[in-house]
């Protein structure tokens, strides 16, 4: 049985010494537990422990810590991992007053963490709105419905509802001022010239260039939330704070009552499936987002048969594209297919 008595930060540091820091999944899980229990006060202990790993990078640790969401993993996970590694928690005789004090301190930490989570979520929603507004301005003013894309030519697929930059455009995203601004042409060069070196953590950028293909990402109600760019080399970029969860790009949306609707990951795969079958296909970007995109589509098209078109990556350990798609299809009760083409 895991002892879930609240731990001080000093005791946390002792426990962490018995957990290997090299496995990334464990590293992230322990970070989540530290942030859940201690909030930002837990960063120093987690960061010190992280430095045991040969792959440790300070900048990576800070970036990952900022991205962690408290509440998913709890202190019991750290205690179990430490015990599995040979740690024995010191048994101390505590008075009733000591127990009340430790419990009160833990509850106060959790209260502060909960308040911070609420504030962070509210800020995230404001930043998502700001980025969505900037993306809308770019769509309306600086993109064309027709254009050239070396990526699409190389993949041999057509342009279905995607857009093409008329000129170089930059969206600057400032999480400190909570705004997103659009810069065009020579303004982009001026923005980079005035950018502080090193770049502050609260400043981010999303650049669109002629030759890119731009995929609009919309929510179930049709609201534009973000853009994805795919450049000449096939690199896919997405704006910081752009909302992805539950958003997609629907190819063949003009079909009012389709018999079949498919969901795939990348644009090129989705376009290929549409061209081969005529089905409407939702571009979900990745298999994780398929789980958020598919259920609303099943509600929107209740008479349509849904097929999840997964990426088959036999050269990747565990073939996550196939295994995760199969698991999701079993969960949703729908069909699954793996197109025999290069995943994109």
Automatic annotation (TrEMBL):
Record-annotated Toprim domain positions: 261-332
GO MF annotation list: helicase activity; hydrolase activity, acting on acid anhydrides
Coiled-coil segments: 103-130
The entry's keywords: ATP-binding, Coiled coil, Helicase, Hydrolase, Nucleotide-binding
Domain Primase C-terminal as annotated: residue spans: 15-82
InterPro entries: PriCT_2 (IPR014819), TOPRIM_dom (IPR006171)
Protein name: Putative DNA primase/helicase
């Amino acid at each position: 049985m895991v002892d879930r008595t609240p731990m001080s930060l000093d005791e946390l540091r002792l426990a962490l010494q018995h957990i290997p820091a090299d496995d990334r999944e464990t590293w992230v899980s322990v970070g989540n537990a530290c942030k859940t229990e201690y909030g930002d006060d837990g960063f120093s202990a987690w960061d010190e422990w992280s430095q045991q790993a040969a792959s440790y990078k300070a900048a990576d640790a800070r970036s990952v810590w900022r991205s962690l969401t408290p509440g998913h993993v709890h202190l019991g996970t750290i205690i179990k991992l430490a015990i599995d590694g040979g740690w024995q928690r010191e048994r101390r005789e505590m008075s009733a007053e000591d127990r009340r004090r430790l419990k009160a301190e833990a509850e106060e930490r959790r209260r502060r963490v909960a308040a911070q989570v609420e504030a962070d979520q509210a800020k995230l929603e404001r930043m998502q709105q700001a980025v969505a507004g900037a993306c809308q301005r770019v769509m309306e003013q600086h993109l064309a419905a027709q254009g050239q894309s070396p990526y699409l030519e190389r993949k041999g697929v057509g342009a279905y509802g995607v857009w093409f930059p008329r000129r170089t455009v930059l969206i600057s995203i400032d999480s400190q001022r909570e705004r997103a601004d659009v810069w065009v042409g020579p303004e982009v060069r001026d923005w980079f010239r005035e950018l502080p070196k090193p770049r502050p953590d609260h400043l981010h950028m999303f650049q669109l260039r002629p030759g890119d293909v731009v995929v609009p990402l919309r929510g179930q109600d049709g609201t534009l939330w973000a853009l994805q760019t795919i450049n000449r080399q096939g690199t896919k970029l997405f704006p910081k704070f752009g909302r992805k969860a539950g958003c997609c790009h629907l190819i063949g949306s003009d079909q009012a009552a389709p018999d079949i609707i498919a969901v795939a990951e990348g644009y090129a795969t989705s376009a290929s499936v549409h061209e081969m079958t005529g089905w409407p296909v939702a571009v979900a970007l990745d298999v994780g987002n398929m789980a958020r995109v598919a259920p609303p589509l099943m509600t929107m098209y209740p008479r349509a048969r849904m097929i999840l078109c997964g990426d088959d990556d036999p050269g990747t350990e565990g073939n996550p594209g196939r295994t995760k798609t199969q698991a999701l299809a079993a969960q949703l009760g729908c069909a699954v297919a793996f197109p025999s083409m290069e995943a994109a």
